[in-house]
Amino acid sequence: MIELERFPELVDPVLIAAFEGWNDAGEASSGVISHLESAWKAEPLTELDPEDYYDFQVTRPVVELTDGAERRIVWPTTRFSLARPPGSERDVVLLRGIEPNMRWKSFCEEIIEVCRELGIETTVMLGALLNDSPHTRPVPILGTASDEGLARSLNLELSRYEGPTGIVGVLQHAFALGGLSAISLWASVPHYVAQPPNPKATLALLRRLEDVLEISMPLGELDEEARAWEHGVDELASQDSEVAEYVKELEERKDAAELPEASGDAIAAEFERYLRRRDRDTDS
Predict the structure, then answer these.
(1) Domain that holds residue 276
(2) Total-model pTM
(3) At 127, which CATH number?
(4) What pLDDT, in 10s, does the model give residues 164-207?
């Protein structure tokens, strides 16, 4: 049982969650949580007992040295932290974990219990999947919501997916059954460059998250890192004629299937981001 009495009262808190593993191609979604923890100086809240959910022969603990001498064991688990974004009227609870090896139903129930204790009513799950998206184009983000009204209000979709799922899909479903508003955002990561990190996909998730929550997201150096990542993949692709031809084929296929990114909706969304950041900079 998790003890929460020592925690401060939160203001209209929202949960943002991501899990390493099957749901986290290129570590794009867990990269969002890591980035926000650092940028917002998030403070630890609590964590789940790893004994209940992890097979340590599959997801092994890690030995670390502190101060160059003292050894400690870091156990795989799921951790909650609290952030208070500058200029925002609501608190943000960040949830970062590793997809559990067992007892998924109990795992979801325990997370929901923590959310209720903290007064969280809105949840956003982040994920990333491998796809045939060319690295030279904007990263596609699929956004879904737990009910039709929420989806309509946020310009998202109702999920139509059928097939195998990970903890992100299971937890989103559990949130909805538990009466919480459940949103999920998925980035498409090029399957031919799957190794982490993928700052371009992390940046795309952050920008879509900003649109959904109307909270200004700190981007730091992600813009520069995303450009450097794309340039590096360009160079690698140019050294292999088969890869270069495949990327060109993906580009042509995508360009033929979609309208240009500079649509009215895309321009309006980018302008709204600009206004939010300008207001935040003015207030600070």
Answers:
(1) 242-281
(2) 0.87
(3) 3.40.50.10900
(4) 899 999 999 999 999 999 999 999 999 999 999 999 999 999 99
| Residue 214 sits in the same domain as residue 246 | no
Same domain (yes/no): 203, 254 = no
150 shares a domain with 38: yes
Per-residue pLDDT tens for 66-121? 776 788 899 999 999 999 999 898 999 999 999 999 999 999 999 999 999 999 99
How far are the Cα atoms of 9, 54, 129, 190, 253 from residue 81, in angstroms, in the given order?
Answer: 14, 20, 25, 30, 42
Pairwise CA distance, residues 29 & 23, whole Å: 8
* Any domain includes 7: no
Do 270 and 204 belong to one domain?
A: no
Beta-carbon count within 10 A of 215 CB = 18
Burial class (CB in 10 A: 0-12, 13-18, 19+), 96: buried
Interatomic CA distance for residues 17 and 124, integer angstroms: 6
Distance CA 88, CA 10 (A): 13
User: Smallest Cα–Cα separation from 75: which of 105, 44, 53, 108?
Assistant: 53
The structure tokens 């292999």 sit at 240
Considering the domain architecture, whether residues 204 and 246 belong to the same structural domain is answered as no
User: Contact 100/56 with Cβ under 8 angstroms?
Assistant: no
